[in-house]
Amino acid sequence: MKNLIILLMLNIMLACQSQNINTMEPTVDNKFETFDKILLQKLEKKNHISEYDSNNNYIELLLTIKTITYRFTLKDSYFQKVKVYNRNGNILAKGLTLNLPWSTFRKGIWYDFDEKGKLIKETNYDEPYKFTFEDILKFCEKENIRVDKGPILQSTGFHTTIYRDVENGQPWWEIKRLKTPDTLEIIKLDGITGEVLSRTEQEYINN
């Protein structure tokens, strides 16, 4: 597995700029790239590969009938780099998401490609929000809400979830945190002003 991860880092990240593991946001560019054919042959035997590298960054690969998904989470980042490839190995989309394995949001610019690898769309998912993710972190600090960095696995229990969306032209944020061992608090904020729109609670059952 160690050799496999080394191969992954050498081949799948050739099109990426080098990164400081202490930065918050990994670098994503708009360049065409292809998935390594030798690595794909190995992935076809398992369909799913996940592993920490020597720097405690987390790498995950998932093979489906139509796509190959690559996720890379720096140990000191709130975000993970996501790349989706066609089964022919050509890149389809890439960008950043929050470092959670469940419902989250796309961050910054996402790049979409056609099946031949031509860049067809760039979408800036930050554009509607004047109240930024950094502002959300400041709000959470003020409210004593813990937001974890680095890889977060499904098996490690509940972690604060940050989500955002736009409804009827109005951007908003939602923070869901574990207030007590059996209670979740859900805080909704205006995506422009940061005003708290609502606070609700719901029962939490730890399965």
Describe the structure.
It is a single chain. This protein is mostly beta strands and 207 residues long. It has 2 domains: 123 residues, no CATH class; 71 residues, Nuclear Transport Factor 2, Chain: A (Roll), CATH 3.10.450. Helix content is 13%, strand content 40%. The strands form 2 sheets. Strands 1-2-3-4-5-6-7 form a 7-stranded antiparallel sheet, with no helix packed on it. A 4-stranded antiparallel sheet has the order 8-9-10-11, with no helix packed on it. The protein is globular and about 50 Å long.
Describe this structure in a few short sentences.
The protein is 13% helix and 40% strand. The protein is globular, with a radius of gyration of 18 Å. The chain is mostly beta strands and 207 residues long.
- Structural class per helix/strand content? mainly beta
Radius of gyration: 18 Å
Multimeric status of the protein: single chain
Helical residue percent band: 10-25%
Query: So what's the overall shape?
Result: globular
Overall pLDDT level: 87
Order of strands, main sheet, comes to 1-2-3-4-5-6-7
